[in-house]
Amino acid sequence: MSSFQQAFKDVSKLVSDFKDNESYYLSPQYQEVEARRDFIDRLFMALGWDVKHDEQKNPYEQEVKVETIVQIAHAQKRSDYSFYLAPDFHTIRFFVEAKKPSRNLANNKDDFFQTVRYGWNAGTPLAVLTDFEEFIVLDCRFQPKIDDILNAKLLVFHYSDYAKENKFRELYHLFSREAVSDDSLSKYAASLPKPRGRTVRRGLFPGSYISIDEAFLEELDDIRLALARSFKNNDNSLDSDELTEATQRTIDRLVFLRFLEDKLIEPHHYISEFGNRKSAWEDFISASRTLDAKYNGVVFKKHRIDSRNFVGPDDKTFSDICEELSHKSSPYNFDAIPIHILGSIYERFLGKVVHATAKRANIEEKPEVRKAGGVYYTPQYIVNYIVDNTVGKLIKDKTPRQISKLRFADIACGSGSFLITVFEKLLEYHKKWYQENPEQAKKDGCIFLEGAWRLTLKQKQKILTNNIYGVDLDQQAVEVTQLSLYLKLLEDETTATANDTWVMFKEQLLPDLNKNIVCGNSLIDTDILDENLFDFEEEKKINPMNFEDVFPEVMKKGGFDAIVGNPPYVLSREVMDKKIKDFYSNHYLTLWEKPNTFILFLEKAYNLINSKGYLSYIIPNSWLTIEACKLSRKLFINSKTLKILDDLNYNVFKNVGVEPLILTISKYKPSDVTKYRRIFKIDDFQGKYLSFSQESWNKEQNNYAIFLSTNPLNDIIIDKILNQASTIGDVFDVRTGLQAYEYNKGIPKQSKKDVDNHVFDYDKKFDKDTFKYLDGKNVARYTSNWSNKYLRYGKWLSQPRTIDIFSRPRILLREITGKSPHSLYATYFENSFLNNKSILNILDYDNSSTNLKFLLSQLNSKLMTFFYKARAVKSSRKLFPKVVIRDLCRFPILPLSNNQDAKKIITLVNQMLASKKQLQQAKTASAKNYLERKCERIDKEIDQLVYQLYGLTEDEINIVEVSTGSN
């Protein structure tokens, strides 16, 4: 009997039982707890879920978490069932909210709102509301709004439907464990219609298609602006920094209070009651002072906003904020929002500051964020991977006592996402270890509750203060990191456990983290102040710091056991203060010409880990190839500490033109062997590694090609090509185009306005220094398309090049490549046109058009696309794959010979160039169709002749065709 047939048989029996006593089950006397026990539990057991935990005994590794009913202010605060899939016991797949059958579910707005609220806050697409009589599937993709909440209904099953095979099959293939493990819920959600543009903007669609993080970030931004303006109106003397800090501290407290309320750590609601005694602001400050005594920590620590001299916001503004955030009105449930999601919200929130003018306050992006195009939060699966491969390896098989001596850090911690995950990893390990070692659990003071040994709040405090360290240059980031760690610390606490710590043990609930999470400059120590080069404001901004002074015990013992993170990327084109750059040059061995801060963070972190320490960063994968990183690569190759390279060839960060690399380094047991893996999608994290010798990489002059060869058959063909060919760089003169922006005192002005002063349409005055101008988009295969642009040639160009490059016969090759089967876009060109750096120029030393056309046939062939994809550094990038001049110079080229194939190729190239030109000028559909077919035929002939030139067999040709997507 199949699993579906068995489930159908079991559920049909439940239907029969319910029907036999339907009047009783639908009566008010029959309670929810009975419905859960008699029917709802058994329904999900039939669907393959271990609801009773008959198999999954470990409380920390159970796929179904069943909550006991908790009533506070007549409202149940937690969902009845949360479903997970092993081994990931963090990601909730769906919620089920249970009710008693006498309740009318189908039109109950409160029940709908409560259930959707769980799902939306946790980021699950669907949730279930059921009393067994009805099984209602709800859409949780939209921010819940009570007035429209009934529109969230997607599917409704009556209990009689369970006994109909076709209807039960529909339910089974959505919510059975077998189906959920096959991603049924996400697939179903993806098939649902989405609201479109104007409908959403005008508010005509019920709810709003917006994720919890985007929605809450918008709300926090609105609150910050309202607070800043109200603070400024009431005290015009407040400057930007004071307003930024005051609004930040106020928001932190409000968020923390909602967390305490929703987690049931505080037994009553605060925010909804502000204003019941005095003004809302006065009640807020009074509560802050009371809670500071209980909680300690940075959140409620006495601040300027607590002073009587500080004029708070006007009462209406703050009352409105409290009303919107209160549990009564807010769609947010902090019991369901994962802590790392709050971290991602805060990461972006920290990208903006309050900017005060003489009379007004506005919110602006920080300059560094504006330059970078936004804040880029590291996806949680990347954070998990990095932490598992560092902290996870170090704590494996260790006792809690041994782990207490380990020190883990993020020295550019931002909102604390990596440190939250490190803390979570440590808590999970301790819970599991004590579960497996009950005698030691009892000795160490764990509490046995509901079948599991649980860590006390005091134990979790010690883990936090013993093991977790962080640094950031931004004081607000430091505050948010501390806040995030506090939220994680209290995540599993209750009113009872919190009161035990506070009342019975007379201990504050939050430890002081000021010695663990520090505001300072990880890259610049206090040596920079020796020559008195800075005034106080500059010094304060630089905020130099010595690790030996800030973390003396850690450094005395040799440094950190692991450093993880996503260091900031300051690109080489950005302007850097000369005094700071000089400091970097004098203090860092790996700086080479262009300052990239991630290189400096790599070196600094490497020097801060101890002799058995791990370092893992996510950085741009250009580290593998660019000249600016050669000394950094050399450091780890020579020390033989480079363990793993995970090359992520896809867009990890939204809207960012950087493909990253996860680099894992360990000083423990140096080895010449490094594991390398290319990752094109998340699933590839389960793929195999290619091992290579660091020394071989070094001997190849850091040739990235050794990483790209993963198919032995491809390698055979590549070797066959290279063994009989010269390289383009040996035979031809390869030049980049000019740089079309003004250079002023060594600093490029890259604004559109600067370029437009010199790049223009023909309607401006033409003179002898003005030439027709091509961009990369103007170059295609065997043709070009001028956009009627001109460029003034002169000294204003930052990289002018000699004018003869642009007036000789040449090949124009577009830097940005296309898709298979022909990725390279090249054409023959003789006219006097300038071109920018998005076009590479290939010139023959003898100005031979025949030589150039013979090369052109090879560049535009499938065989060269095959070579490019196998050996070019940036060929596999999903965002703007390109061919760079260094790689192009290494491309193979066969010399022109007098054999018939070579002559025929030249003839075909001339025909192709002419046909492409005719195609551009064709005016009728019939002419275009004919010429397109003609070009396609010539293309195939050239491809076959190029295969013959290199002596490829039929089998080898087939491999090329398959690899380029031709078959």
Give the helix level as a range of percent: 40-55%
- Helix count equals 39
CATH fold-type name of the largest domain: Adenine-n6-DNA-methyltransferase TaqI, Chain A, domain 2
* Largest beta-sheet characterization: 9 strands, mixed
Sheet with the most strands: spatial strand order: 15-14-11-16-17-19-18-20-21
CATH superfamily of the largest domain: Adenine-n6-DNA-methyltransferase Taqi, Chain A, domain 2
The percentage of residues in β strands lies in 15-25%
Distance between the termini: 43 Å
Summing up helix and strand content along with how strands pair, one would put the structural category as alpha+beta
Apparent shape: globular
CATH class of the largest domain: Alpha Beta
List the helices and strands and how they pair.
Layout lengths: L2 H18 L1 H4 L6 H15 L17 E3 L4 E2 L2 E2 L4 E3 L10 E5 L10 H14 L3 E5 L3 E6 L13 E6 L6 H11 L1 H5 L2 H8 L5 H5 L10 H23 L5 H23 L17 H16 L19 H11 L13 H11 L2 E5 L4 E5 L1 H6 L7 H9 L2 H5 L4 H4 L4 E3 L6 H20 L1 H6 L3 E3 L2 E3 L2 H11 E5 L2 H16 L4 H10 L12 E3 L16 H7 L4 H4 L1 H5 L3 E6 L12 H10 L9 H12 E12 L9 H10 L2 E7 L11 E7 L6 E7 L10 E4 H6 L5 H4 L3 H13 L1 E2 H4 L1 E4 L2 E6 L2 E3 L2 H5 L2 E2 L9 E5 L4 E2 L2 E2 L5 E3 L4 E3 L10 E5 L11 E4 L3 E3 L3 E5 L5 H11 L2 H10 L13 H5 L2 E2 L6 H22 L3 H25 L4 H10 L4
Parallel strand pairs: 5-6, 11-14, 11-16, 14-15, 16-17, 18-20, 27-34
Antiparallel strand pairs: 1-4, 2-3, 4-5, 6-7, 7-8, 9-10, 12-13, 17-19, 18-19, 20-21, 22-36, 23-35, 24-25, 24-31, 26-30, 27-30, 28-29, 32-33, 32-35
